[in-house]
Amino acid sequence: MFFKQSCLTFVVNNNVRKFSISDIEGLIGIKAHTIRAWEIRYNLVPPKRTPTNIRFYDEDDLKMLLNIVALNENGYKISRIAKMTHKQISDLVTQLKSDWSNDSVQMLSLSNATIAYDEVEFSEVLGKCIEEMGLVKTMDVVLFPFMKRVGMLWQTGTIDPSHEHFASNLIRDRIIVEIDKVEKPEKAEVKRFLLFLPEAEMHETGLLFARYLLKRCGHDTLYLGSEIPYTDLKKVVESYQPDFAFIVLTSLNLGKDINKIIGKVMDNLNVPLLVAGSLISEFDILVKDQLTPLKNVCDMTDFLEDL
């Protein structure tokens, strides 16, 4: 998905947020020309205008557009949606939300809750998805795609950093709860994993998920968290003596030379390194001895369960 830099991002006037069409494009995942076509052909969610004639959308418009996208992605044609009242649209979306395995609807629900800072709604959607699908599938089809979109919107200025922190912290807290629920099985050959994020990488969601998978598989972990200095790694490895090290790379702040970062990590380790995260699937990773890229959830689960 292509995200444009917003020209009217989250302007606040009398406590009313205003969104440009490029903001809306990024938030709902529909191109601006399509949104304009809906407006022209069907008078669907026409924008408002400032006293200086600048077009904008408010939060109610955004919610309605999110609902329209949810219906459209679940088989309802725009021409049919245009004939519905707002209440009919909302009622249909409420019915769709009751199917917690409907990942497209739940992603939109999480987006709506994030924009509104609605912790109750966000936690309910997240909890029900995990209850219905389990944490592994929820991470694969809902949370990782959702967090990738949120990260892009933050980078382009369409949402505030506070929205990204709001969502990621709630997800982080829930994964920790799920980790605590796991009863670690007995395993004949238990491996030791060193889990950490290198310098400039702060997003722990993927690393915590790896910890969940490892505990579920019966392995031991030493979890160090984010932004561990490269110079500390040799001391930790010498003390803990892991069989593997595991890092996750997702932050766009790391830049495009992901191989350089991986090289720095490996220079300070003498154990096999597993690397996961969205950046691994976006860039070509150089083949190295003792390096295993894990490009998606299936790669992670398959590798760990086969140990």
TrEMBL record:
Q: Recite the UniProt keywords alphabetically.
A: DNA-binding, Transcription, Transcription regulation
Record-linked InterPro entries: Cbl-bd_cap, Cobalamin-bd_sf, DNA-bd_dom_put_sf, MerR-type_HTH_dom, MerR_fam, Meth_synthase_dom
Alphabetized Pfam families for the sequence: B12-binding_2, MerR_1
Single GO term (MF) = DNA binding
Q: Give the matching PROSITE patterns.
A: HTH_MERR_2
Q: Which domain of life is it from?
A: Bacteria
| Alphabetical list of CDD domains matching this protein | HTH_MlrA-CarA
Q: What is this protein called?
A: B12 binding domain-containing protein
Native species of this protein? Pedobacter steynii
